[in-house]
Amino acid sequence: PAAGAVVSFYGVVRDHSALGPTTRLDYEAYTPMAERVLRQIASEARVRWALARVAVLHRVGALAVGEISVAIGVASEHRKEAFAACAFIIDQIKLRAPIWKREVGEDGGYWVGGDSQGGRA
């Protein structure tokens, strides 16, 4: 009842990347550790911005263009804190969570951050 702001963020699969057209994304995770890291990030945000509620969900598996891969919801007393917390959470997920993304296009697939050649395989 004290929360005057609710901010949500949805990461959606795009039809392109820096390497060209994308038909889907494949996500894999080390689930036990990923769940711990997501909870830790949410807890850090809750303390840092005195949030009323935080929810974080990241999907795994093959996701088609237009599907949601990650969802974040934050409730706080004021909007500034809610927006800041939401941005912090997605940035920390990308930095710390053991979740890996493979971009798949017409020319094959590429593990983002995992291919030292920087091309489709």
Give the strand order of the largest sheet, numbering strands 1, 2, ... along the chain: 6-4-8-9
Largest sheet: 4 strands, antiparallel
User: Could you tell me the radius of gyration in angstroms?
Assistant: 16 Å
Q: Count up the helices.
A: 2
Mean pLDDT: 93
Q: What's the quaternary structure here? A: single chain
Shape, principal axes of CA atoms: elongated
Series of H and E elements: EEEEHEEEHEE
Approximately how much beta-strand content do the residues carry?
Answer: 35-45%
Structural class: alpha+beta
- Report how far apart the termini are: 51 Å
**Helical percent range?**
25-40%
Low-confidence stretches: 115-121
Number of strands: 9
Describe this structure in words.
The chain has 2 helices and 9 strands, in the order E-E-E-E-H-E-E-E-H-E-E. A hairpin with a 2-residue loop joins strand 8 and strand 9. Helix content is 30%, strand content 40%. It has a 4-stranded antiparallel β-sheet with strand order 6-4-8-9. Strands 1-7-5 form a 3-stranded antiparallel β-sheet, covered by helices on one side. Strands 2-3 form a two-stranded antiparallel ribbon. The protein has 121 residues and is of the alpha+beta class. Helix 1 runs antiparallel to helix 2.
Overview in brief:
This protein has helices at 31-48, 79-96; strands spanning 5-12, 16-17, 20-21, 24-29, 53-58, 61-64, 68-76, 99-105, 108-111. By secondary structure, the chain is of the alpha+beta class. Helix 1 packs antiparallel against helix 2 (79-96).
Protein traits:
four-stranded antiparallel β-sheet, single chain, three-stranded antiparallel β-sheet, 121 residues, disordered C terminus, alpha+beta, 2 helices, 9 strands
